[in-house]
Each structure stands twice: as C-alpha cells, then as structure tokens.
Amino acid sequence: MKLLLQILVLAVIFTTLYNEVNGQYVMVNYYNSQNDPTCKGEIITTTFNIENKCLSGVEFTCNGNEIQVSFYNDSYCSQGILQQITQENGVCQGGLQFNCVDNYQIPENSFASVISESCDDWKSTAVSILSKPLNTCLIIPSENAVIYSCTGDVLTTSTYPSANSCFGIPKNTTVPLACKSSPDSNYSNSYICNQ
Ligand SMILES: *[C@@H]1O[C@H](CO)[C@@H](O)[C@H](O)[C@H]1NC(C)=O
Ligand SMILES: *[C@@H]1O[C@H](CO)[C@@H](O)[C@H](O)[C@H]1NC(C)=O
Ligand SMILES: *[C@@H]1O[C@H](CO)[C@@H](O)[C@H](O)[C@H]1NC(C)=O
C-alpha cells in the first residue's frame, strides 16, 4: 500500500511536470513551517478543491502553468471578485505548494473531511477534501498544538495547552466518522479515516 501511494505521488508529480496542466482538482499542500522556503518539511494539511466551481465564495482555476484562486464577495460567487491570487503550479511559495491534479487522494495515516454533492456517492461527487495526518503532533502557526486520532467510529481532536508542543493534558473533541447532509445546503460532509 505504501509503495502504491508513493507511486501515485510520483505519478502526480510526473503529470504536473511533464504534461500540460489540465487537472480537475487543485491540490494545496501546507507545510509545517510557514517560512520553509523549500517545502521539504512535514505536510500539516492537504486540500483538494474541484476546479471552476464556486465553493463557499471561493473558486480555483488551473490556467496554463498558473493557478488562480478567486475570492468572491458572496458565497454564491455572483457579486464580484474581492481578491484574486495567482500561484505557479508546483512551486513552493511561503510554505504552500499548489498543483493541478486529475484526482484527489486521501494519504495513508490521515483523516479527511470531504464535502460532496451526496452522501451515497461521496467518492465521485467530492468537491472539496481537507486531510491531515493522524497520531502526530501538529504545530500550526498561531494555533495550539493538536493530535488527531481515529478510534472505533470517531475522530478525536486533542488540543494541547501549548502552541509549540504536545505536552500536558489535552482537551478532546470528537466527531463521528459518518456522512451528514445539511438541510440548508446542497452539500454533504463526511469524515473518513485512512489508517
Ligand atoms: C461586497 O458586499 C457588500 C455588502 O453587500 C457591499 O457593501 C460591497 O460594496 C461589496 N464589495 C464589492 C467589491 O463588490
Ligand atoms: C484527552 O485524551 C487523552 C488521551 O486519551 C487523555 O490523556 C486526556 O486526559 C484527555 N483529556 C481530558 C480533558 O479528558
Ligand atoms: C440547492 O439546489 C437547488 C436546485 O439546484 C437550488 O435551487 C437551491 O438554491 C440550492 N440551495 C442552496 C442553498 O445552494
């Protein structure tokens, strides 16, 4: 499984380097140190957002070798753009790395929060995926240190008293590993563990 994932990761890199970029998802890797100019450290979060779709007022577009992120004034993306940022495909900028890819993946030993168009068919209707590593102390700038873990049918977030270490007694919150449809939106939200 590990080898397969490594091959998948290589395939993604290979595709983005050597083929014309026309991915269906924009992948963003967030590295542990915001000032890490090389993006060689630990990835603390990975997101995949489907291209050219309004996602709560934000839209991602792959445009040649560039990725545009448009922030709209309203959640339906109908009231004009407030701000737009452009990132080069595959280039590390400020501890962030953007890539256009053909599909999303949930890394091994991670959990994911998946926004999809339905619960029954979340795998093929996923529009936005956020994943973070499990069972490791995550130091996130300007937040308290956390460890995520999956046991039985819950995802536990243990938030530590300190911002830069996982010492002391954490506060724990849990969410069920299940899919929920929200009555006031057309999207569903699932929590998934891959461990
Ligand atoms: C954004 O929306 C607010 C409230 O509707 C409005 O006052 C403002 O002018 C809008 N800004 C832009 C850039 O459209
Ligand atoms: C949270 O969970 C950890 C690990 O199971 C435990 O050591 C800790 O006491 C819990 N925190 C609280 C406030 O119960
Ligand atoms: C949900 O979808 C329906 C049909 O496409 C649409 O009329 C409605 O405005 C949508 N609701 C929200 C909250 O986006």
From TrEMBL:
Top-rank taxon, per record: Eukaryota
Signal sequence segment: 1-23
InterPro entries assigned: CfaA/B/C
Keywords assigned by UniProt, alphabetized: Signal
The protein's name in its UniProt record: Transmembrane protein
Species the sequence originates in: Dictyostelium firmibasis
